[in-house]
Amino acid sequence: MLGYLRTFLPWIAFAVISTPHDSRYGALVGAVLAVALLAADRRGGKPWDALIIEGTSVVFFGALAIAAFTTAKAPLGAYGSAVSDEWLALVAWGSLAVRHPFTLGIARTMTPPEVHDHPVFYRVNAVITAVWAAAFTVTGVVLALLAQAAPHATTAIIAVKVAGFVLPALFTARYPATVAARHRAAAR
Predict the structure, then answer these.
(1) Cα–Cα distance measured from residue 53 to residue 57, given in angstroms and rounded to the nearest whole number
(2) Where does the chain cross the membrane (predicted)?
(3) Quick one: three-class SS letters along the chain?
(4) In DSSP terms, which residues pair with 19 in a beta bridge?
(5) Considering only CA atoms, which of 132, 133, 138 is closest in space to residue 166?
(6) Across the strands, what pairs with 22?
(7) Could you report how far apart the first and last alpha carbons of the chain are, in Å?
(8) Do 187 and 108 form a contact (C-beta atoms < 8 A)?
(9) Is the sign of the CA dihedral 177, 178, 179, 182 positive or negative?
């Protein structure tokens, strides 16, 4: 789960630093962290397919930082958090659409090569990516609704942001072990 925390660090920093009225520094910190993490991972030998979120984070935060410092303090206004989650949803759903779930490359760095071509390995990663995609989608929608209806409901906004990350992270940590246990039991 800590690997996912590191992957989403630019997004977490953006959520913590940005306000509905000023996303400049959140976008800038997100961009710097995204570039630094991507560069460190590439220097460490991680393959590009394990860095889908990192690569798209550089694009998102780079564009947002440029917009934030050249157009307005908060180019996305009160919807910055919602838009960032929907971007992640788009990346996750898109990776499923092209049959390369974003978790697949990450999982390959943490598992023995002999399982990489097994259909169950792909299926587990497709399910995990779908859970993340659904979580990003729902989180983004709820944050947009909160921005519209209750923009000062800080506790609710924080709770939604935390749940939108923690719940799929917990699922990611537990689901592969559950599938593996089922397969061991079926093999007996």
Answers:
(1) 6
(2) 52-72, 87-108, 120-147, 153-173
(3) CHHHHHHCHHHHHHHHHCECCECHHHHHHHHHHHHHHHHHHHHCCCCHHHCHHHHHHHHHHHHHHHHHHHCCCCCCHHHHHHHHHHHHHHHHHHHHHCCCCHHHHHHHCCCCHHHCCCHHHHHHHHHHHHHHHHHHHHHHHHHHHHHHHCCCCHHHHHHHHHHHHHHHHHHHHHHHHHHHHHHHHHHC
(4) 22
(5) 132
(6) 19
(7) 30
(8) no
(9) positive
Q: Give CA separation, 185 vs 91, 179, 180, 188, in Å.
A: 35, 10, 9, 6
Place of tokens 């460490």: 44
CA distance 88 to 61: 12
On average, the pLDDT of the chain sits at 90
pLDDT tens for 7-17 read 889 988 988 88
Q: What is the pLDDT of residues 28-40, one digit of tens each?
A: 999 999 999 999 9
77 pLDDT above the threshold of 80: no
Mean pLDDT value across residues 119-145: 97
**Cα Dmax for the chain:** 63
Quick check: 30 and 57 in contact, CB under 8 A? yes
CA 153 to each of CA 80, 150, 156, 157: distance values in angstroms, whole numbers, following the listed order: 15, 5, 5, 6
The reported pLDDT for the residue numbered 109 is: 87
Q: What's the pLDDT score for residue 94? A: 97
pLDDT of amino acid 72: 66
